[in-house]
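Need the bound structure for zinc ion, inputs here:
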Amino acid sequence: MNQTQFYAPTRVIFGADTEKQIGDIIANYGYKKVLIHYGGQSALRSGLIDHVKQSLISKKIDFVELGGVVPNPVLSLVYQGITLAKTEKVDFILAIGGGSVIDSAKAIGYGAANEQDVWDYYSTSALPQACLPIGTILTIAAAGSEMSNSSVITNEAGNLKRGCGSDLSRPLFSIMDPVLTLTLPDYQTAAGCVDIMMHTMERYFNHGDNLELTDAISESLLRVVKKNALLLAKEPQNLAARGEVMWASSLSHNGLTGFGTDGGDFATHKIEHELSGMFDVTHGAGLAVVWPNWARYVFKERLERFVQFAVNVMDVEPCADAEETALKGIHAMENFYHALKMPTNLKELGLNPTEAELQEMAEKCDYRPDGTIGIVKKLAVSDVYAILKC
Ligand code: NZQ
Ligand code: ZN
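Answer from helper R.:
Posting the output first, comments after.
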């Protein structure tokens, strides 16, 4: 049995119109000066930013703002945010958006609360000692950053996309109003659902003991997201389905579905981070490309788990040959991605990398000191290259 911990301190405030409580919520925590952090256009266009400002003004809470976070958020804006937070003596960061905005807020939170260069926390084993408190208003169900301890930032110098994990950055609260996600483009909805499922799949495909209850939670989560992702592909305005995937987004990456495991594989994520670091692709779409190739490369190392996944999640009829059942499960997942109009290879993703680019991505991957990533099968540079090449 593995030693294990579950720590999920984020207050979840879920349901229609919950964002209207924002002034009260921050006032109750006693914060005085807020940095409102957001992305490109969507939260401005919907009027959400204005509503938040009005709510803060009504409670006499001072604020400054920094928009412009791009998908695959960049270090240069993080530095701007740190300077702003320090000069304005901000004591709280409110992230309004998805994973990119929340991750950028977490990095600003580290940079403002520590003297060290924030990039050290992403590029070396240095760990932050503090973080400004963060709250979120989630506008896309996907990354799970609204409850997770992780954040991923791209350093434009060298296109290095790297993550930092620290419980210090887990949001104090996350407001989740599924209505806010009704304006999402279909592509982002679908990519979000791929990412949500992948956060559980990364943990599900492990190489150690598993708790039956954790497996049952994981398989239920995957089935519910699969069902509602297909529903949303046909009915993007289905609010009940929006609510299901939003709650799943948070539970899938807050550690719950990894409870009792050895931590999970996460090679698919690491390989995808190289794709989005170099080519700025949408994270979920990149995952849909990497996972089937990864799965076919490693499934024999953990055959019984791939069979369980095929039968319990992908509704495959088990056949006498376990390998055939496992492969049918992987194929069913590819069909599901196609039903969501997600790509399953680099060409469908619109990429045609050169040999040198494939090699560079394989070499740059965020390897452990032993030179490998992944748990199901420990992958070295040549394995990662082979998976990318598929
Ligand atoms: O910038 P705006 O105009 O807001 O547009 C965004 C963006 O273009 C748009 N969008 C968001 N909410 C919307 C909306 N458009 C219309 N209506 C709305 N309600 O959606 C686009 C994507 O937003 P983004 O925040 O990038 O999406 P997501 O939540 O998928 O985040 C992706 C980032 O999170 C990282 C990924 O690597 C990627 O950088 N991840 C973070 C993790 C974590 N911190 O725990 C874990 C994940 O595995 C992932 O790596
Ligand atoms: Zn992800």
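Comments: The radius of gyration is 20 Å. The beta strands are 11-14, 33-38, 62-66, 92-97, 134-138, 150-155, 160-165, 173-176.
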